[in-house]
Amino acid sequence: MTGCRYAVGGLALVWAATMAGCGRADRRCEGCETLVVAAVSEPSTLLPPLVSETVGRDIGDQIFERLADLRPGAASIDSAGYQPGLAARWERVDSLTWRFHLRPGARWHDGRPVTAEDVRFSFDAFSDSTIGSPAQSVLAGRVAIVPEDSVTFLVRFTEPSPDQLYDATYHVRIIPAHVWSAIPKEDWAGDTALAHLVGSGPYRVAQWQRGQFLTLAADSSFVPAPSLQRAIWRFAPDPDAALNLVLSHEADVLEATAGPERERRAAADSSVRVIHYPSAAYGFLGFNLVSSKGHAATHPVLGDRSTRRALTMAIDRVTAAKAVFGPAAEAPPGPMSQLLWLWSDSIATLPFDRQAAARELDAAGWRAGADGVRVRNGRRLAFDVLVPSTSAARRQLAALLQEMWRSAGAAVTVTAVDFPVFQERLGQGRFDAYIGAWIDEPSPRGLADQWTRQGWAALNYGHYASPGFDSLFARASRTANVVDAGRAYRAALEMLNADAPALFLFAPANAAVVSSRVRGIEINPYSWASGLRKWRVE
Question: In terms of DSSP H, where are the helices of 173-294?
Fold first, then answer.
């Protein structure tokens, strides 16, 4: 039997709707290759400017195209690291301008040609405050599209930057102007018509049964033709339910097991294989350097650099990362995932050294009290760690840190709150320390919002401020040569590490679970399903 699968129980209606043309279980089904993806949660939309969930991006990337794609592992400032997408080629015109040429014969799924006007319309949509795309802050007022003819256009920037080609290609998926220009932008979020999800990619939406599954069918006009004829996303309520779909042979692929215990379950099943690949996430414990009563005052404990350095050296980051996230997890050398091109084990970090931590605390004036908790000027070495109650991993990590700090003479409590409360307290500065996590993009530019002074109004909740770090980071972000930029960024990160505004705790690896009948899988860690059209089902 080739490519056919047969459902039992509650899945029968799904397969009846999606597997037309497949015969009985004892018959071959040539040309009916179908892959089923087990997904945790369901996207609210697939329209690219509105997509915020990972699963929405994964599905949408089969339907809509970028102008070009950055190769895995390539630096965002390396022009040689990009490969054609909807654009066949491009060239620099001057320091502010690039010229792009659309792929010959590119067509929308409804048969109409893709034009330069579609590109202009798409960039305007991603920049529009009415829609509120995550890319709006990067594009609005900084990038303009100027069509030269139906298939050629200029991308003009307002200022020079090594990331121009990245900004011209990474954020925007091109959508058809002839479909969406007639619909008021304020109505886009509420539009559920499948007929409006017209793309130029290898797959089109065939069916979407809300709350159950979504089916993609290969588009006959896409060149080269996809190997898989159908891809079905089955929506599961949680990681356990998603894994069960694969282990019960009701799905072929799960993006990530989301925990060592589920990975062990999958590894014990001979009908599937586990594929490790780096995650784009990194996690950290951020210290609040200012008083919760106002930014003008430093935090009475954590505002002191020597104290933060000592607390950092008291933590075995490698052991903590692997205990919570599995043996493939790493303790990062700074605020980065394993994917970011800046990663280097040569970046200087504060070592795990209990004796050095004790000496640093002694030098900072912290003396051991009768109960083992250090005291300075009548104040105990005590603080609280805020975590979201919805994250079992962060709660477990906080408990490990709590015990390690107890041995160093610090009394640490842990407060778990619902995620909306967690976010609210971070925004208001009502915390001593918190365990956070960010998702990397290929450009390190996002670190500015997380760790520079300008990030106080964005994601720098701990209010770290260092003119030296900001200066080094700004210089690195203006450097176009990959080698020189890498050197400059790493110098900035070493200054950040020395100041210890945070402990950079974990950079996990994902563990995908794949049926043994699926072949040809190559995973781009920034978009794990982007190569799906080349996979095969045997």
Answer: 177-180, 239-247, 260-267
Question: Spelled out in words, what is the top-level CATH class assigned to the domain 281-507?
Answer: alpha beta
When pLDDT is averaged across residues 424-437 and rounded to a whole number, the result is: 96
528 — phi, psi (to 5°)? -60, -30
Number of separate helices (H) and strands (E) present in the chain? 16, 25
CB under 8 Å to 357, separation ≥6 — which residues? 310, 311, 312, 313, 314, 408
Q: What residues does each domain of the chain span?
A: 9-64+201-278+511-537, 68-179, 281-507
Residues 6+ apart with CB under 8 A from 295: 429, 456, 463
Confidence (pLDDT) at 3: 35
Please state the rounded mean pLDDT for residues 294-303: 84
> Is residue 286 scored above 80 in pLDDT?
yes
Asked if residues 235 and 39 have their Cβ atoms less than 8 Å apart, the reply is: yes
Confidence grade of residue 22 (pLDDT, cut at 50, 70, 90): very low
pLDDT at 258: 86
Residue 28 exposure: Cα atoms within 13 Å on the Cβ side: 4
117-163 pLDDT, tens digit each: 999 999 999 999 999 998 998 999 999 999 999 999 999 999 999 99
Question: Looking at domain 68-179, which of 3.30.70.260, 3.90.76.10, 3.30.70.370, 1.20.1440.170 is its CATH number?
Answer: 3.90.76.10
The Cα 202–Cα 184 span in angstroms is 28
CATH homologous superfamily, domain 9-64+201-278+511-537: Periplasmic binding protein-like II (3.40.190.10)
CA dihedral 126, 128, 134, 138 (to 10 degrees): 80
